[in-house]
Amino acid sequence: MTIQFYDARRRRKAPFEPLHPGEARLYTCGPTVYKDAHIGNLRTYIFEDLLRRTLKFFGLKVVQVMNLTDIDDKTIRQSHASGVALKTLTAPIIERFFRDLKLLNIERAEIYPAATDHIPEIIALIERLLAKGYAYQAENNVYFSVERFPEYGQLSGMNLQALARGVRIDADEYEDKENFRDFALWKGWTQEDGDVAWDSPFGRGRPGWHIECSAMSMKYLGEEFDIHTGGVDNIFPHHENEIAQSVAATGKSFVRYWLHSAHLLVNGEKMSKSLGNQWTLSDLLERGLSPRAIRYLLLSGHYRQQLNFTFEAVQAAGAALQRLDTLHQAASTAEGDGPARDSVRRIIETARNKFSAALADDLNISEALAALFDLVAEAHRIRREMPLNRAEGFALQNFWHYVDRVIGALITDEVEIPTEIEQLVHNRMRLRTDRKYAEADAIRQELAGKGYQIDDTNQGSVIIWAKGRKLVNIPH
Ligand code: AMP
Ligand code: ZN
After folding, report:
1. Which-ligand-closest: CA of 245?
2. What does the alpha-carbon distance between residue 37 and residue 283 come to, in Å, rounded to a whole number?
3. What is the mean pLDDT of residues 42-53?
4. Does residue 90 line the site of ligand 1, with CB under 6 A?
5. Which atom in ligand 1 lies closest to the alpha carbon of residue 232?
6. Going by CA atoms, what residue is nearest to atom 10 of ligand 1?
7. 12, 85, 129, 232: which has the fewest C-beta neighbours closer than 10 Å?
8. What is the pLDDT of residues 342-364, one digit of tens each?
9. Are residues 95 and 244 in the same domain?
10. Domain boundary pick from 208, 237, 261
11. Which of 384, 407, 430 is the last residue of a domain?
12. What are the residues facing 348 on neighbouring strands?
């Protein structure tokens, strides 16, 4: 089957032809680790998970790189403001990021490079740009000269005249869109940087944000690779600058397909600090929402359309899952011998074809899910004629496993929490409230001995884990 993706640079769908047959290499812009991911970020990571799973579904080997942006203006400012070292600030945020991925059943990328571990590669790339005349040094900063790269703007459609009104800037934040022409590759040390600085041939300083992604993507995926993704806010200037830097340095095309997810809205509004709607996954779990329903909701809208997040929508997602569960349940408990009826085979075959055709068409997940619900309706109709037998139940379960390679929310291995364990957790909570920490810790040890790990959230509730899977969030 031919897979096609909407490529942002060509502004049209194009058949996906990987550079190395049988293998897809993709770079997905990762979190800026100065604060916890919000559900908008998570929407983008789920879109990237859908992309990754779909590529695998069609038999491709996937090499995915997701960077951790642990040096940029925001992380440095946050580290400065809170008076903690950069790594001390970013380490727990990175840990929680991975926990969010696990909770949402987002598959791990092959490589998660951090900018702080790639300073030599970044410096080498800047040196290449200086040597080729695309970059220049001004005092302790190194800038990319947009004028010397006439193709600039092809991805975003920004033209050079619009940019010409801008002046040179040395901020690498997304918000600085107007004040824009040349952008910084290396930023000389200033007092606000504190001890975040590295020696380089251009003086002591630190890299700009854009060059980090160029250096890390090319290191792990090659100077030319298949797919690069992010949210739409990444298109300009971040991805535009990545293209300029990489193409200027190597003379190669850098990336063959650019895919971007539209933004997530909350209650119909843009997420923002002032509206207080930048919810994190923990915020939602605190309110009793299930990660499975959240995953389903974030997954279920087409990635190029905005998605509106509301509590009602999460509930509707939960209800949709329940409808799917009902059939799965019937399939798992089916009894009786004999071959599967043709009608059952047929509805599975139809759903299978529609499901994969929809995914191959630029990840049309809503249509893929619709095929699944058609199957559910048909299967119930057939069941009413005569209950499912074992062979039919088995065929349906098989199909469930097949589609869940992409959906990642149908088959759950959630474990029931034994009452005894729940009791212990509550006892420990009480002890902690009474400040009897030693006794509380003894219970933690006891739980660990039984295979349960517990985490206290900063809202006072407790999350229980077993075998690396989150089980429940017990409110305080
Ligand atoms: P950041 O941590 O800000 O670097 O963003 C991480 C990823 O989330 C990037 O791919 C962004 O484009 C994406 N992103 C940021 N805000 C939203 C949003 N409201 N909806 C969807 N994706 C977003
Ligand atoms: Zn990036």
Report:
1. 2
2. 11
3. 98
4. no
5. 12
6. 230
7. 12
8. 999 999 999 999 999 999 999 99
9. yes
10. 261
11. 407
12. none
How far is CA 55 from each of CA 44, 58, 66, 193, rounded to the nearest angstrom?
17, 5, 16, 41
For residue 20, the 8-state DSSP code is B
Is the Cβ atom of 24 under 6 angstroms away from ligand 1?
A: no
Q: Residue-wise over 190-206: b if at least 16 C-beta within 10 A, else e?
A: eeebeebbbebebbebb
Residue 93: inside a domain = yes
Ligand nearest, relative to CA of residue 239: 2
Tokens of 284: 């939602």
Ligand that lies nearest to the alpha carbon of residue 238, given by its number in the listed order: 2
Ligand 1 atom showing the smallest separation from residue 264 Cα: 20
| Amino acid at position 83, single letter | G
- Higher-scoring residue by pLDDT: 177, 133: 133
Which tops the pLDDT comparison, 460 or 33?
A: 33
| Residue 289 placed within a domain | no
Backbone angles phi, psi at 346, to 5 degrees: -65, -45
Q: Are 98 and 87 in contact (CB under 8 A)?
A: no
pTM: 0.86
Question: Do 312 and 174 reside in the same domain of the chain?
Answer: no
Residue 5 within a domain:
no
CB distance 301 to ligand 1 below 6 Å: no
Q: Classify residue 32 by burial, with Cβ atoms within 10 Å: 0-12, 13-18, 19+.
A: buried
Q: Which ligand is nearest to the CA of 242?
A: 2
416: left (phi over 0), alpha (psi -120 to 50) or beta: beta
Question: Would residue 4 count as lying in a domain?
Answer: no
The beta strand positions in 102-231, using DSSP E, are 135-138, 141-144, 183-188, 205-207, 225-231
Taking the C-alpha atoms of residue 461 and residue 29, their distance in angstroms, rounded to an integer, is: 32
CA–CA dist 406, 418 (Å, integer): 31
Distance 239 CA to ligand 2 centre (A): 7
pLDDT digits (tens, 9 = 90+) for 390-415: 999 999 999 999 999 999 999 876 55
d(CA 14, CA 211): 28
Paired residues of 258 in beta bridges: 228
Write the CATH number for 223: 3.40.50.620
C-beta of residue 41 within 8 angstroms of C-beta of residue 234: no
List 24's β-bridge partners, or say none.
Answer: 62
Q: Which atom of ligand 1 is nearest to the CA of 271?
A: 19
Rounded distance, CA 471 to CA 14, Å? 42
| Residue type present at position 316 | A
134 and 183 co-located in one domain: yes
Ligand 1 touching residue 456 (CB < 6 A): no
Contact 43 CB / ligand 1 (< 6 Å): yes
Domain count of the fold of the chain: 3
In short, whether 75's Cβ falls inside 6 Å of ligand 1 is no
* Parent domain of 96: 20-261
456 Cα to the center of ligand 2, angstroms: 32
